[in-house]
Each structure stands twice: as C-alpha cells, then as structure tokens.
Design a protein that fits this description.
alpha/beta, 154 residues, 4 strands, four-stranded parallel sheet, 13% strand
Length: 154
C-alpha cells in the first residue's frame, strides 16, 4: 500500500510549506477470543488508518505487550491507560468486520457518555466493486452493539 505522509515536518523544512497537525485516531477492534487473528486484524486496521493519512493508536496492541491481559488488575490498568490517550485524539474509530467485543461496547458507551469525540465505524472488507461495506449493508458481523443478541462479539 502507499502511505501519505502524516508528518509534513520533513517536507516543511525543505519546501517551506505550512504544517498541519496530524489526525490522531483511537482504534477500537476486538482483542479477546482468537487473539492472533484479532491482533492481525487490529494491525490491518491501523494500516488502513495510516493509508487514510491518520495516526492510529490501538491501546490493545500496545499495552498487551507489557501487561498480562489475563490478569484482571493488569487488564484494567491497560484499559485505563488506553482511555487516558483519548485526549490526544480527534475521533474514535471502531473496526467492526470481526464483530463487537465487550471491550469495544464499553468503549462505545464511554465515548457517548463522557466525551464529544467523533465516532466512526469502518470495515476492512470490500464488496465486489471495492467500496467499504457499511453497518446497514445487512451483514451480521457488522451489527451494532445491542443488535448482537446471544452471539456476542469477537
């Protein structure tokens, strides 16, 4: 893939152009369950955000490298550290191809109850003509929280 420069500083020095602050986005995607598949998916979501000219932060990829997600206290600490990074972000982006995990649902409640961040829902899968599939496209795996019923998220 081709990546646009989200850090124009290097070009600004040489080309004397005005700098624009990068768009920082929080990436929310499943982690629990099939951890390796979900980590691979989160990495792809971050690359997708980068390709859109955004600077992604996925706390579930970062903090699980140093904290034990199976330990409830360490898990909570990682979640709170991730939420602390929201102040730097412009929007919270939910990647929903793999469904909604309880952690994603909690993040959605938090963003709606406690912040004024813009929220965006994205899919990485493309339909046959290359357009992103949206939540209203009739796909079960892109259902919104509350629509999940008994099957839950990934």
């Amino acid at each position: 893939p081709h990546y646009r420069s989200v850090f124009p500083l290097a070009h600004a020095v040489r080309e004397d152009v005005h700098m624009k602050a990068p768009t920082i986005v929080i990436i929310e995607s499943p982690y629990a369950g099939d951890i390796q598949a979900n980590v691979d998916y989160a990495k792809a979501a971050c690359l997708d955000a980068m390709d859109r000219g955004e600077v992604p932060f996925a706390s579930h990829l970062f903090y699980t490298q140093m904290l034990d997600d199976r330990d409830p206290i360490q898990r909570l600490y990682g979640i709170e550290c991730g939420y602390a990074m929201w102040w730097a972000a412009t929007k919270i982006v939910f990647y929903v191809d793999r469904g909604w995990s309880p952690g994603m649902e909690a993040a959605l409640r938090r963003v709606k109850d406690l912040t004024s961040h813009e929220v965006e829902y994205r899919c990485l899968k493309k339909n046959e003509v290359g357009h992103e599939l949206h939540n209203d496209a009739g796909r079960d795996d892109a259902a919104m929280p509350g629509e999940l019923g008994e099957r839950g998220g990934a």
